[in-house]
Fold these 2 entries.
Entry 1:
Amino acid sequence: MSHWKALEPLIVEDATRALRELLNQNPGERLYAVAFSGMYRELDGPIYLPALSANSVSAREDEGSGDFWSAEWNPADWRWDEIQFSSPALDAAADAACELTRNETREGWLLAERECIDMLVSAARKLRAALGDAPQLTPDFVLFLHDDENGLDLARRCIGDAAFQALFPKEAIAQRERMRVASLPVEERVAWLVGRLGRFDGKPVDAEDAEQWLIDIGAPAVPALVEQLARPRGRFGSEAARMLGRIGLATPEVLDTLRKRLLARGDKPTHAWCAATLAYLGDSEWLFGRLAEWRGEPERAAVAIRGLCAPYSSFRDPTPAALDYRQLETLLSGSAAEVAVVHDKLKPGSSYCTLRAGELDEALRGLASPHALVRRHAASLLDERGLGAEAGERILPALADRLAHDDDADVRWQAVRGLMAWKRAALPWQAQVRHAGLHDADERVREAARQCLADQGSA
């Protein structure tokens, strides 16, 4: 039995007691729903159990809407939105499970998250059974786990297919429509999805869904997207460019269309996405050529620079673009004005790309770059504990070396943050961390080092 599964009897017992107290204190109310809500977790960090939420017929705002996403079924909008139900015994057990989870490997953490969610689904079912047919519960009363991720599936698992379809007919209709669209011949499906771009009208497949479905279709969707991008006054140029980048096919037609749209007059978002997608598709040499031509036009030059920086941001993660610091190092060797644009685009706190397993060599090379921005970026990526122990054997000594010897405080700070992200695997480098906590010239680095030691249990 997992350490999360062991909490289930305590949760059911404590929640049953709390709900019975709620019913006793409100004899005139009839509940139609109770939910476990507000579960909080951070990847590689803590997992906190949800609270209980409940709503009554008299407090319901949307009478029988049949819409799972309405206030009627959103615990944050309910009369009793946060019922603290845990006993000291459950709190202690949850704290222990949380601490064990925090110290797991990445694979262990993900497994613990699934086990915790599965346990809560099971607890919801058992709690519903424990309440029985109490007179203060409506005939169609349900009890479910509410979560921002996979909310519909979790609710369905808790209450069952029959009850779900009876309570949420709109969702059943929407699912049938999505299945119909998914079964269309690919050319017809592409045309239908292109027709949904820009539409947020409450239909089962909105613009965001349509984009993702087109990306998932891949190569067969490219001609239609190229056609959208090629329209001089087309409404969906930026969307088409973004999708072409994520599909990742650098055909001559795709590159030519992106180049022409970037050179033509148009809206700024389309120009920005064309430049970024050209970089994702490996057309950086052409972008550098445009940068050389546009040096007397700061706004156009900035578009090329930001595009060349795009493969280092999180927007590149859904694309096939591989980490390669050579383009960034070339940019950082340019004029002061150009370097300023690069620093603004990749400033601390901006969202960087995620390191992939096959990119470790390039990240370690970047950690030794003569450019501090490249070193800082690489140090940020190297906090990826999910790469596993073998990668950690190469990463951790390199981060410790940067912490000890880099002349840039931002790099040192990022290095110690990286060591902290690797948790107990970084224990062999505690001496370097402890020295930084005492003697680093920058207070922010000293504070981060002390936090790292505290997290490792050796402050």
Entry 2:
Amino acid sequence: MDERALGDTHDRAGIVHRDGADGARRRCADAQMLPAAKPPDGATLFKQQCAVCHTTNLSDPMRQGPPLVRIVGRAAGKVEGFHYSDGLAKADFTWDEARLDAWLANPQAVIPGVIMAYRQARPDTRAAIITYLKELN
């Protein structure tokens, strides 16, 4: 029968040292002293989640989605040379932070029938990406 308890430690000879719950608490407290991980910035998130389909400049070849440089303040569905879905081509609004936030959360709720499948449920991630896109203006 194994008589090990939570918090037991073993030396090289296999001898069990009983430090019980106090030892376990000390190890948990030590683990909590680690610095918090820094959340990814907007540029990193964009590269991880958006750059497969979108560029951030007009000189790169078009991808599945339009380039997003200067998107804040731009009329929706109006990048020259990009073929938009019917819904986006007929859109009658200008991209702003609130519209981009809604779009990233659920593009089909903003314009039914659009092709973009990406959805981001986390408000902090959407905010970081939008902040990065604003920096590109």
